[in-house]
Structure formats: C-alpha cells, structure tokens
Design brief:
heterodimer; A: 257 residues; alpha/beta; 3-stranded antiparallel beta sheet; 20% strand; globular; B: 290 residues; 6-stranded mixed beta sheet; 4-stranded antiparallel beta sheet; 12 strands
Chain lengths: 257, 290
C-alpha cells in the first residue's frame, strides 16, 4: 500500500496516508481502537474498497484496475460477522459454493472440503443448516468457506469471536502453518492475548494512521492499552530483574526459572 | 432471583438437547460469569431468562425457569423485558432504529413511558455507557464496538434488575471493553443489578465476578468461586481460556515455588489481577534471592 487514503461518502476519512508492505510468509496482526480504520484498511487488499488516493498493489496488480472477482482468486476475506458469509442450506454447500466459483470440482473439491471440515471440527455439522449453529460454530463455518480455497493471502476480521481458548489456539496454529509456502496471513483483532502468543508482526492503527509497525515484542511491551496481562505483570516486577518485554505466561515461567 | 429446575430444551427439529437437566439458582445482585466451549448452551440458557425461549424460538422445553417468581413460559417477553435486559452476542441482531437516539427510545416507547421520562432515561443511559457523542449518529455507520455500546445503553434504559450480556466486549478494543466492564461492574456494585455475563476472554472480567459457571454440551460442569473454578484442571481441559496470570501461578506452584496471594484475611494461591500477581510473585522472588 502506498500513501493510501480512503474517505467515505459522508465525508469521514478513515485511512490517512498509509504505507504498508506485507510479504509472503508473514503473519501480521492489525490492531487499534474501534473505528481506527482497521476494517477500512483491509478491505482494500481485495478491492472491496478502492483507494480515494494512493495505490494498493497485489503482486503486480494495481487493485484500481482489477475487479473484486479477479482479486478474490488470490485474497480470501473473512468478514467480522459470520452471518455475512452464510446463505446456503448446509455447511458443506457453503464450501462447495466457494470452490465452484473457482472452478474446482469433483474429487479435488471433495478432498479439500473433507480436509477443511476436519480441520475446523465441522464434520459433525456437515449437513446442518449453518444459521442454526452457535455463534462460534458459525464463525468456523465462515472461516472454512473461505479457507477451503487456500488463497495466497488470507484476511480475517475478528475471527475468534465466540470461540473458547482451545479453538482459538487451534485456529492460530492453523494460520501459523498456513503462511508457510509463501502465503500471508493478515489478522484484524482486539484479542491481545492471542496476538501475544501467536503472531509475528503487529501494526497498530490510530485514527486512520499507522502508529507503530514492528515485531510483536516491540509493539506490545510497555503498550498502555494493548499490552497482554503478563506484560503488565512483567512491568511491575522490573525491579526483580524480570525482563520487561515478556508477553506470555510461558515466557515468564522461563524467565523466572 | 432466578430459579431453574430440571431445564431441558430442544430447538425445533433438533435431535439433541441444547440444554440438559439444568438446575441453577442465581440470587439477587450476583455477578455470574458463564463460560464454556462454543456450542455448549450458553446463549441458549440466556435466551431462557427473558422468555425468548420458548416464545420466540419455539422448541421443546421441560422443567421450570422462574425469574423473580414469574414462570417464563407463562409470561410474555414484554413483561420479562423490564426485568431482564439482554444484550446479544451480535449487536446487528438488536439494533432496529436508524439513529442512536431513536434506538434508545424504542424500547421505552413500546412500553408507553411518558416523553419526559424517555428523554431523561436516554440521557442517563448514554452517559452511563459513555456514548453521549454518538447520540445523533446513524446506527448503520457505527463501528462494531460502537454498536455494541449502543445495544447496552438501549437495554439499560429499561432499568432491568437483571442484566444478561452475551459476549458484550467481543467487538470492543481493550479500552472500550474496560469501559463497558466498568459500567457493568458499577451497575452490579452500586445498584445491585444481577449480572450474567457470557465470556470467553476471562482475564478482564474474572476479578469482578462472584461466581463462574461452565456449561458444556448443555450441562453445567462447574459452578463456584472464580479462584477455585479457574485453578481446576478439569476446567482448562474443557477448552476454557484460563487467564494467563492463573496459568503462570499454576506453573510457579508446580515448580515447587510457593505463591501466596494475600486477600483480606485469606491466604490463597490464585491471583485474579495483575496487582495480586505482582504482590504474590514479588514475595516469591524476594525469597528466592540468594
């Protein structure tokens, strides 16, 4: 993204002059206060929003010259609200729909669907009506319906709502494995603890601008609002020689040993 | 006071019960944290409290659910709405008006309150939740977090004595989440409003709660004080997120280091806040210094 600006029709400028580069294999967490521009920003990656000013270039394609359909082949986007994804009669059909759009059929499709359902613990819901599932289950179906296509870049907007820790950790581990082989993961989230445990790089937005962009340890230590619980504890124990850039319980245990 | 006896519930067309033989009593003024794996029945249980189950969702319900002495199957959601205020998991499901002011007025208008009362209550609710600046905004243009706070304010305007919140901070940033939880805590503390809070991210709320209930596969598998429930190994096995500071305390203890959290007259070993963690660990670190 080069000098990206985006203003909405009602005059509200959500993104102001953002410069951002995401490389293959990266796991980037985009954080910031509500209405800081996170969702507006990431919607530019697959062309759902076009820049008011500036450019967004995906591989060699300028998003201003491509359609959302074209960009969707490379970029998967999982919306904040899983209901926005769900419109088929069964969970399986949600996944089939995506694959059909990408002209993946037959055995290949069947195999991808099985793998994906298995991966997200959705096999038992295969033939169920998605909208009858619980909040967290719907979240997983929405994720599965996009990830079944194995896009080059995956953008997830608050994907862990409604999920207990175990499922969140599984998703994070899945995303961590996913970005190997040159894929990129972009996660918009408020879940500081998950980011502390699982991501690499954190981009912090405020009022449409990037405030800080760097390795998670740099961004999350000493942060006032976006600091994980253990880091706040570490800050308080500095005088006992505890390093002040510890982010998780496991790291703290190692440091205390 | 909420009294639930032998509650079993199947959604229409469901072959497995979403709630199985639930027995539960929640006293006035309690702050209850309801947690457990996704699909375990938390939202379903909440829906029984204001009559959405069975009046809106249908299905098959057996057993008894009484709120302030009223059997929910025999009283309308309208009657129950002034006793139980519910804030849904998805604010989109709750917001009906085009602007915030009208949204807050909606419930009150439906209950035929006088204009001046409505005006005053809207003012109060906006102020309590800290969103006075959103008053004239279009609901469609609000961010996820702003929507959630508007939903909370609209429910508060009805002066419920029980507040049920289903993951109210899931779309809020850390500051917004803190603001909302502070409001909820204050309502519980100062006004004695009974709070039932469904949450997955427990670290922020656990210190405020009196009681933690874990719901799995439609059944209550744990029910007790936060310290004992969250340090119980079986609870973390169910997938529930144990706050990092408690995980740390358990690891410290398992390495044979002692940890004493001083709490009024109790000596305990499960810190619930950063402050408790600091005090406990500082002692441990001091004692282990050569």
């Amino acid at each position: 993204m080069k000098n990206l600006w985006h203003g909405y029709p009602d005059g509200f400028v959500a993104v102001k002059g953002i410069n951002l580069k995401v490389c293959p294999g990266e796991f980037v967490a985009i954080m910031g206060r509500n209405a800081s521009g996170k969702t507006t920003l990431v919607k530019h990656f697959n062309g759902l929003l076009k820049p008011t000013k500036g450019d967004v270039i995906l591989d060699d394609i300028n998003t201003k010259e491509a359609t959302v359909a074209e960009l969707s082949r490379k970029v998967g986007y999982v919306f904040q609200n899983p209901n926005d994804h769900l419109f088929c009669d069964t969970v399986e059909e949600e996944l089939t729909f995506t694959l059909n759009n990408l002209e993946v059929k037959g055995e290949e499709a069947e195999s991808l669907i099985n793998q994906t359902l298995e991966r997200f613990g959705l096999m038992q819901y295969r033939y169920q009506y998605p909208r009858f599932l619980s909040g967290g289950e719907k979240q997983r179906v929405a994720l599965a319906s996009i990830l079944v296509a194995q896009p080059q870049v995956i953008i997830l907007d608050e994907p862990t709502r409604g999920m207990e820790y175990r499922l969140k950790a599984e998703l994070m581990r899945f995303l961590d494995e996913y970005r190997i082989d040159g894929r990129a993961v972009i996660l918009v989230t408020q879940d500081v603890e998950m980011v502390a445990e699982f991501s690499d790089r954190v981009v912090l937005l405020s009022e449409g601008k990037i405030v800080v962009d760097g390795p998670k340890r740099e961004v999350l230590s000493r942060a006032l609002l976006f600091s994980p619980q253990i880091n706040r504890l570490a800050q308080a124990l500095k005088s006992y020689g505890v390093p002040d850039n510890i982010l998780t319980a496991d790291e703290m245990i190692e440091a205390l040993a | 006071m909420i009294s639930i006896k032998n509650l079993t519930f199947y959604y229409s067309g469901g072959d497995k019960p979403s709630l199985r033989d639930i027995n539960l009593e929640i006293g006035d003024g309690e702050f209850v944290l309801l947690t457990g794996p996704s699909g375990g029945g938390k939202s379903s249980l909440c829906r029984c409290l204001n009559g959405l189950i069975p009046h809106f969702y249908g299905g098959k319900i057996t057993g008894k659910v009484e709120v302030n002495g009223l059997d929910v199957t025999k009283h309308s959601t309208r009657e129950l709405a002034t006793m139980v205020g519910m804030v849904f998991q998805d604010p989109e499901n709750q917001l009906v008006a085009t602007d915030v002011d009208s949204e807050l007025a909606f419930g009150l208008e439906n209950l035929a309150f006088a204009k001046e009362v409505i005006a005053r209550r809207i003012e109060e609710a906006l102020d309590t939740v800290g969103i006075v600046n959103l008053r004239h905004r279009a609901t469609s243009e609000l961010s996820g977090g702003e929507k959630q706070r508007v939903a909370i304010a609209s429910v508060l305007a009805l002066y419920p004595d029980i507040l049920v919140l289903d993951e109210p901070t899931s779309e809020l940033d850390p500051k917004g989440a803190e603001d909302v939880l502070n409001v909820v805590e204050r309502l519980n503390d100062e006004l004695g409003i009974t709070v039932i809070l469904v949450e997955h991210r427990l670290d922020r709320v656990v210190a405020h709660s009196d009681r933690v209930i874990v719901l799995e596969n439609g059944m209550i598998t744990a029910d007790g004080g936060p310290r004992s429930i969250l340090s119980d190994g079986r609870v973390s096995q169910s997938g529930v997120g144990i706050p990092p500071i408690i995980k740390l305390a358990q690891a410290v203890k398992s390495r044979g280091m002692s940890l004493r959290v001083k709490r009024s007259n109790f000596i305990d070993d499960t810190p619930l806040t950063v402050k408790e963690g600091r005090i406990a660990l500082a002692k441990t670190l001091r004692h282990s210094k050569p």
